[in-house]
Amino acid sequence: MFKFLKKDTWLLGIALGVLTPAFSFLILYYINKYLANTNQGVAYIKDSTLHLVCIFMNVLVFRFYMLKMKFDYTGRGILLATFIYAIIFFYFNV
């Protein structure tokens, strides 16, 4: 069904590395906002912590592609996207 996820290419790695934190951020952000609305406006997770958790999600995808599937080029693409996200995070938060 998902044959395109079983390719060893840089492009797939970069796409996974960009989309994984984006989707996880959207999901966690709206969960956090929903919980804040039910708790008189107090958010449970700070935005900077939320960003770090989403960057960490790339580590899980990277580990799967590098150790289980042995796709080096896809893993390198994920790692490249993770480094770019980390640089952007530290530039804007530090």
Poorly predicted runs: none
Query: Would you list the SSEs in sequence order as H and E?
Result: HHH
**Global mean pLDDT:** 90
Counted by DSSP, the helix tally is 3
Radius of gyration: 15 Å
Oligomer: single chain
| Percent in strands | under 5%
In total, how many beta strands?
Answer: 0
Helix content: over 70%
Most strands sheet: none
Q: Note the gap between the termini.
A: 43 Å
Determine the structural class based on helices, strands and strand pairing.
Answer: mainly alpha
How many separate structural domains? 1
Task: Provide the fold topology.
Layout: H1 10-38, H2 47-68, H3 72-93
Helix pairs in contact: 1-2, 1-3, 2-3
Explain this structure to me?
It contains 3 helices and no strands. It is mainly alpha-helical and 94 residues long. The chain has one domain.
Question: Which short descriptors sum up this protein?
Answer:
3 helices, mainly alpha, 0% strand, 94 residues
In brief:
Helices cover 78% and strands 0% of the residues. The protein is mainly alpha-helical and 94 residues long. The protein starts with 9 loop residues before the first helix and ends with a helix.
